[in-house]
UniProtKB/TrEMBL annotation:
Domain (FAD-dependent oxidoreductase 2 FAD-binding): residue spans on this chain: 23-471
UniProt keyword Manganese, yes or no: no
Keywords: FAD, Flavoprotein, Oxidoreductase
Cofactor(s) this protein cannot do without: FAD
Source organism: Actinomadura violacea
InterPro entries recorded: FAD-dep_OxRdtase_2_FAD-bd (IPR003953), FAD-oxidoreductase_2 (IPR050315), FAD/NAD-bd_sf (IPR036188), Succ_DH/fumarate_Rdtase_cat_sf (IPR027477)
Domain of life: Bacteria
Name the record gives this protein: FAD-dependent oxidoreductase
NCBIfam families linked: PRK07121.1-3
């Protein structure tokens, strides 16, 4: 999808009578929009939510539903884990870096237990059970999972504690999460206009954001926001031109989105002088199964390992696609494959198998001897329970023995939209530069009057790293703050 329609602002004095008016106008009804609308309405503001699709949900509803929460939640305690905000902070600064937003992370960690309770107040339930296996997402209803906290080097800077909180749902939980959040926002008093596509911000004579222009079934509709507009329109992975300009690493790969993350909110804000931040930062999911990768090894097209395979799988995914020559292969032996629980195989079968590594190299098109050298080195150290190159946890170390198999990530198992069967899908993390309360800043570092943003339309906690649950967590946490701040404004646009 591309978007070359004009996003230039429209002067308020050129509109005349607005079709609709409210105190706070939230644009986008994913997790960040639901959180902002809920808090603004609960604070007493008259809230309208615009959603371009035919109902709430967005990319949030199609996600796994993981929420990165910690600091000592009831689920953590029930599963026997002791956590605190400082320990959580130490891990997230390392995992979301380099160049993570430490001020936002600090607020997030200090408020994480309260944020967990907020989800429960909204009707989201979490089972007090723990899934103790490496995976992208458990096909179970367990409420807690590891997200790389127990792997090197993260276990050297923070005490390993699992923080992946999952709504009570088998498999993908995003739809359950959004069902509860959207219902809570509606119950609080927020009114939703669906099938309504925002196109241009409206500015008063003094440059303050006063509303926006949208289209509904091809007809122009105008909205006046007496206090503020909150942009929660998602990222820009579905806009090929924006990807080419800012994040070309995702070109040609699959897209983790609902197909509507076209960067429209970012473009509208940038057209009135809003600053953007870290637009080249992305998250990538290589379609390799962590349960298999841990029991074997992940290698590049030259047959070389490049990271400890037990880290959060997004780390080896980004490292592979950004830095390693493809294609990528999971190398595993028969014993390792058979030891993977059936539920964690996701129906994936080896694409290549051979009795010798030389035969496997030939079928994979690798340089002769390359994979043999990698496995020989790995086996020699694994026999002693060591991995001096990448520090994989000893519990996953053992020599690999014939027969061997290579599993091709290009087969794919993630959904997402667009792109060839590249074996990788991703989304963008950069966006509008905001304060912790969601105020959108201009290129001088000053707030744009009347404009707020949260979720993937904004640049949140992330530096150049990512962990599952920090999009839904960041979007809802800072969406709540944006909603409260917008509602607290005087009715300066009245």
């Amino acid at each position: 999808m591309t978007s070359r329609s004009s996003v230039e602002p429209v002067p308020a004095d050129g509109i005349g009578a607005f079709d609709h008016e409210c105190d706070v106008l939230v644009v986008g009804f994913g997790c960040a929009g639901a959180a902002a609308a809920y808090e603004a309405a609960r604070a007493g503001a008259d809230v309208l939510v615009l959603e371009r699709a035919s109902g709430p949900g967005g990319s949030s509803a199609q996600s796994g539903g993981e929420l990165y929460l910690g600091g000592g939640t009831e689920v953590q305690k029930a599963c026997g884990f002791d956590d605190d905000p400082d320990n959580m902070y130490a891990y997230l600064v390392k995992a979301l870096g380099p160049n993570a937003d430490t001020a936002k992370i600090r607020l997030y960690c200090d408020g994480s237990v309260g944020h967990f309770e907020w989800f429960r107040e909204c009707g989201v339930t979490f089972n007090p059970s723990f899934y103790d296996q490496p995976t992208w997402m458990p096909m179970s209803e367990d409420g807690l999972m590891w997200l790389g906290e127990n792997s090197w080097p993260y276990n050297t800077v923070a005490r390993p504690v699992p923080r992946g909180h999952r709504p009570a749902a088998s498999g993908f939980g995003g739809a359950v999460l959004m069902e509860k959040l959207s219902a809570a926002a509606t119950a609080a008093g927020a009114v939703t206009h669906v099938d309504t596509v925002a196109s241009n911000l409206v500015l008063d004579a003094d440059g303050r954001v006063a509303g926006l222009v949208a289209r509904k079934y091809g007809e122009r509709v105008t909205y006046r926001a007496r206090r503020a507009v909150v942009l929660t329109t998602g990222g820009f992975v579905d806009n090929e031109e924006m990807l080419a300009d800012h994040a070309p690493v995702l070109l040609g790969h699959g897209k983790v989105s609902d197909g509507l993350d076209d960067g429209s909110g970012i473009r509208m804000a940038a057209a009135i002088g809003a600053a953007t931040r870290r637009m080249g930062v992305v998250e990538i999911a290589l379609t390799a199964l962590p349960a298999m990768v841990c029991r074997g090894m992940l290698v590049d097209g030259m047959g070389r390992r490049f990271l400890n395979e037990d880290v959060y799988p997004g780390h080896w995914s980004v490292h592979a696609v950004r830095d390693q020559p493809g294609p990528y292969w999971t190398i595993i032996d028969e014993e390792g494959y058979e030891s993977v629980p059936e539920a964690d195989r996701w129906g994936v079968l080896p694409k290549h198998a051979a009795e010798t590594l030389a035969e496997l190299e030939e079928s994979l098109g690798m340089p002769p001897g390359a994979l043999e050298a990698t496995v020989e080195t790995y086996n020699r150290h694994a026999a002693n329970g060591e991995d001096p190159y990448f520090h994989k946890d000893p519990k996953w170390l053992r020599p690999l023995r014939p027969p061997f198999a290579a599993i091709d990530p290009g087969a794919g198992f993630f959904g997402g939209t667009g792109g060839p069967a590249s074996g990788a899908s991703g989304f963008t993390l950069g966006g509008l530069h905001t304060t912790a309360d969601g105020e959108v800043l201009n290129n001088s570092g000053d707030p744009v009057p009347g404009l707020y943003a949260a979720g993937r339309a904004a640049s949140g906690m992330h530096g150049e790293g990512y962990v599952s649950g920090t999009s839904l967590g960041d979007g809802t946490f800072f969406g709540r703050r944006a909603g409260r701040a917008a509602a607290a404004l005087e009715k300066e646009n009245a």
